[in-house]
Every structure is written in structure tokens, then in C-alpha cells.
Design goal:
The complex is a heterodimer of chains A (about 260) and B (about 260). With about 260 residues, chain A is an all-alpha fold. Chain A contains 11 helices and no strands. The relative contact order of chain A is 0.12. The relative contact order of chain B is 0.19. Classes of the chains: A mainly alpha (about 260), B alpha/beta (about 260).
């Protein structure tokens, strides 16, 4: 009953949402170039599974690479910021500017700097993920239990052990929550970057192509594929988080 | 008896002062604790007793004066793993089981120090946590968590134990239990103990000697020997000797507060 209950409500939510969509599009007889019915979109996906699978995997890889690069930079930079108030205060305005400047505005420039292909895509995707991860790392590393830190100091524990045994585990909940934010951001970054990076694979490429040639089936099937990819990433993330953070209060409330 | 570890070390605090901004936390404190003595430091909140303990533990630096633990300073004692510390909150790591928390400090660094894993398990059994070895901290009551914190400190088998109001957050009944648990653990060892508390009864029942501190600036108001016989047991709390000691300590706290 418990596991059934956990899946039942979300399923009902999805069925109602897509059911209403289907019914309304039929009822108002919406033109196909405006909005398609979910059943039509799913049929398009099912009709060319290989095509959509390949493009989805390209975008998934770009988003993941961008996220990983951002994570590596955020861990280094954030560890330094957590150590020094000065560095934190000096870094914060730069990080905020990166966060508030719409990436679309300078995405074409990034392609000029880095050439076409994967490099600008990873750069753009990484940059969009960087700031949430950076603040997650900084806050997380600082959230360690003070008594535990005192204990480590009293036995003269070396800094790397304090990091590994105390600070990093305490930072994990913050990292998971920042990663959740990054799922959506990384996909926006990857799709957008594909438009400018002159690549010929990926869902962003397929979406732009569909817009250019008025192919509403391909447009909406690609949109569904991105959404599915993001949804799947969140589900995987939830499962991993529940495993890793079994000790954290957030994992217990939903038990 | 092991010569170097099990025997307590002397603690010498000489003319130590410490201020935090405009607040004088400690002013010219002198305190000499012989090896193996159990000293309770009692006083109102904000009197600097925790600061004094943190200075001895090497967690805070003095502004002036000297502190020695054994032959060297607090930092040397840290490096030699000579300090067992029990903080005010248990400081247990929520992702580690009871057993792993109890062993946290023994396997820090490259070399193992303190008791063997089997001996730590024995200590857990002694404090009544044998059945909870594989439990996580959130599954324990406050008293049980604090018992794990005690075992973690004793697991180092350190010659000096520093305890910062470890029972402050516990209810009165649990607190009394913990008191005698600590008495038993300490009487089996020769460690030097500095125990900070704001409970006069607790200070008396545990210690060989009670230091009374008063605040702003933090000073030592009284220094009293506790001649109650050992081993200590709960019935001693009903003796007239015990009440006389309590009364004397209360009086010196009051005198300090009026100044």
C-alpha cells in the first residue's frame, strides 16, 4: 500500500494533465500547427524510435558533460570560497552576474570563441549550471556540525580528513538539491547551445529544424523527448539520493 | 597499568586571559590540576567556563598566559592524541552507525590510536548500547546519543578528558543516570578530567575538587576539595556532608554574583 500510494498520486496527476490536454485539443479542434494532441505526439515518437533515441542521447551526453564540468569547477572554487570570507565576498558578485545574465545573449559569442561543435555546448551548459552548484558547495561545506569539527581538531586531524569525513558528507544534501536545479538548467543549456553551435545532431537541432520547416510533429515529439529525458534524470536522482542520504531527515519524512 | 597513556597528565593554567571583542571572557586565571584529578568547573552561563575548557583543549588561543598539558602545550597534546573531548551537543555523524561513531577518532590519521575495536565494543556494552551498535544516531534518545559521545571520548584512552556540559540538554532523570555512568567509567581509569557544568549537584557528585567561576570578567571565585569517599554512589546525595558542600558552593556563587 505504501509503495503503491507513492506512485499512484503522481500517476493520476500525469494522466489528468495529458488527458485534459487531449480532450481540450479535440474539443476546440485546435489546428495542428498550433498544438498537437498527446496521442499524435506519442505516435510520432513511436513511429521513429531510433531517430529520436539517437538525438536524445546526443543531448543527454552534452547536458551531462556540461554538468560534470560545472561540478568540478564548483567543487574547487566553492572549497576555496568556503575557506576564505574574502574570496567568497570577491566571488559572489561575479557569480551573481553570471547567473542573472541571460545565456542566450552571449551564446553566439561563445561559439565564436570556442568554434563549432561540442566545446561551446559544454561551455554554455556548464556555465548555466555553475552558479547553483557553486553556492551549494559553499553553503554545504560550511554546514558541518561544529561539535564534530571540534572533535576532529582535538585529535589534530589533517584537513583532507576533515573534508572527507565531515565536511563533504554534510555538503551532500546541498549538492543533491543544486543538482536537481541543474537538470532543467543543463537541458535548457544543451538545447539552446545546439542552435548556435552548428551541430547536426541533438534535440535542440531537431527543434530548430522543425520550426524552420514547419514540422509540428517533429517539434512536439522533440519537446516530449527532452521532457522525458529531464523527468527520467529527476527520477534517477531521487533514487540515488534516497540511497546515499538515507540518514538525512529529508529521506525519512517520505519514508 | 600502562605507564604513559592510562595515567593522567597534569594541567597547568598560568595567568591566562582571553577577550572576545570588548568582552573579557577570562581574566588572569590560574589553575593547577594534578594528574588523575577530577575537577568540576561550575558557574553561571557566560562566566567563561566553556572558554577555559576550549583553551585547554587547544580549540581557542589564549591572549596571554600559558597552558601546559603534561609537558607541552595544548597543540602538542592534540598531536599526541592525549585529549579526549566531549562537546555540549553529541556531535555524532548522522550517516555513521553507533559503532562507527564511537570509533571515529581512533582511526583518524594514518595510525590507529586508543582502544582496539573490540575494546570499543566492550565500552558500548558497558554503557548499555550493545544492542544499538548498528543503529543510526537519529534512532537513539538524547541520553543514548550522549553515551555514544562518552564512549567516543573514552575510546581514545587519553590521559586527559575534557567535558563541556555534556549532560546539559538531558532531562533530570537521564542526567542522574549519566552522572553515575560517568563516575564508574572515570573511577576505573586514572585520567585527569576537567568537567564543565552549571549544575552544582553534578559538579559535587563527580569531582575530587570543584572550581566556582563567576562572570564578566571570568574569574575563579572558589576552589573547594570534595572529600566524599570513592567509589561514589547515589546514596551519598542524601548525606549531610553532601548538603553542606552544596550549601557552601551556592554561597560562593551568590557572593560572586553580588560583586
Amino acid at each position: 500500500m505504501r509503495t503503491a500510494g507513492r506512485w499512484l498520486a503522481p500517476m493520476i496527476g500525469l494522466v489528468v494533465f495529458f488527458g485534459l490536454w487531449e480532450v481540450l485539443v479535440r474539443a476546440f479542434d485546435v489546428r495542428t500547427f498550433v498544438l498537437l494532441r498527446p496521442s499524435t505526439i506519442l505516435a510520432e515518437l513511436a513511429g521513429q524510435p531510433g531517430f529520436y533515441w539517437r538525438n536524445t542521447m546526443v543531448t543527454a551526453r552534452e547536458a551531462l558533460l556540461g554538468y560534470l564540468v560545472a561540478l568540478a569547477v564548483a567543487l574547487l572554487w566553492g572549497a576555496l570560497m568556503a575557506r576564505s570570507r574574502f574570496l567568497e565576498q570577491a566571488s559572489t558578485p561575479v557569480a551573481v552576474l553570471i547567473q542573472v545574465t541571460p545565456i542566450v545573449a552571449y551564446a553566439p559569442s561563445a561559439v565564436l570563441w570556442l568554434g563549432r561543435g561540442l566545446r561551446p555546448i559544454v561551455f554554455i551548459t556548464g556555465l548555466i549550471c555553475l552558479v547553483p552548484l557553486l553556492f551549494g558547495v559553499t553553503t554545504g561545506l560550511r554546514s558541518a556540525d561544529l561539535a564534530a569539527l571540534d572533535l576532529m581538531a582535538v585529535v589534530d586531524a589533517p584537513g583532507r580528513e576533515v573534508l572527507r569525513r565531515i565536511r563533504l558528507p554534510y555538503a551532500l544534501p546541498y549538492l543533491f538539491s543544486a543538482t536537481r536545479t541543474c537538470v532543467g538548467l543543463a537541458l535548457i543549456g544543451a538545447v539552446l547551445a545546439e542552435w548556435y553551435a552548428l551541430v547536426d545532431q541533438g534535440l535542440g537541432r531537431r527543434i530548430q529544424e522543425a520550426i524552420d520547416f514547419n514540422q509540428s510533429r517533429q517539434l512536439w515529439a522533440s519537446i516530449y523527448a527532452v521532457a522525458l529525458l529531464g523527468g527520467l534524470a529527476i527520477v534517477v536522482l531521487n533514487v540515488v539520493e534516497r540511497r546515499v542520504l538515507h540518514w538525512h531527515p529529508s529521506a525519512r519524512t517520505l519514508g | 597499568m600502562l605507564p604513559d597513556r592510562a595515567t593522567g597528565l597534569a594541567i597547568e593554567v598560568g595567568a591566562v586571559s582571553k577577550r572576545f571583542g570588548p568582552t573579557v571572557a577570562l581574566e588572569q586565571i590560574d589553575l593547577s590540576v594534578p594528574p588523575g584529578q577530577f575537577v568540576s568547573v561550575v558557574g553561571p552561563s557566560g562566566c567563561g567556563k566553556t572558554t577555559l575548557l576550549r583553551l585547554i583543549a587547544g580549540l581557542t588561543a589564549t591572549d596571554s598566559g600559558t597552558i601546559t598539558v603534561g609537558r607541552g602545550g595544548p597543540r602538542a597534546a592534540q598531536r599526541a592524541r592525549q585529549l579526549g573531548f566531549v562537546p555540549q551537543s553529541p556531535g555524532l555523524l548522522p550517516w555513521r552507525t553507533v559503532r562507527a561513531n564511537a570509533r571515529l577518532l581512533t582511526d583518524v590519521g594514518r595510525r590507529h590510536s586508543g582502544l582496539s575495536p573490540a575494546a570499543v565494543d566492550e565500552l558500548l556494552e558497558q554503557v548499555g548500547l550493545a544492542d544499538f551498535r548498528h543503529a543510526y544516531p537519529h534512532e537513539l534518545s538524547g541520553g543514548m546519543q550522549q553515551r555514544v559521545a562518552l564512549v567516543r571520548a573514552f575510546a581514545l584512552d587519553a590521559p586527559v578528558l575534557l567535558m563541556d556540559e555534556p549532560f546539559a540538554a538531558l532531562d533530570e532523570i537521564t542526567r542522574a543516570e549519566m552522572r553515575y555512568l560517568l563516575v564508574r567509567l572515570c573511577e576505573e581509569r586514572d585520567a585527569t578530567v576537567v568537567f564543565v557544568t552549571h549544575s552544582i549537584a553534578e559538579a559535587v557528585m563527580l569531582a575530587d575538587r570543584v572550581i566556582v567561576m563567576t562572570g564578566r570578567p571570568g574569574r575563579i571565585e572558589a576552589d573547594m576539595a570534595i572529600p566524599l569517599s570513592r567509589p561514589r554512589h547515589p546514596e551519598q546525595e542524601e548525606t549531610s556532608e553532601f548538603f553542606a558542600l552544596l550549601t557552601a558552593l551556592r554561597r560562593s556563587l551568590r557572593v560572586g554574583a553580588q560583586r
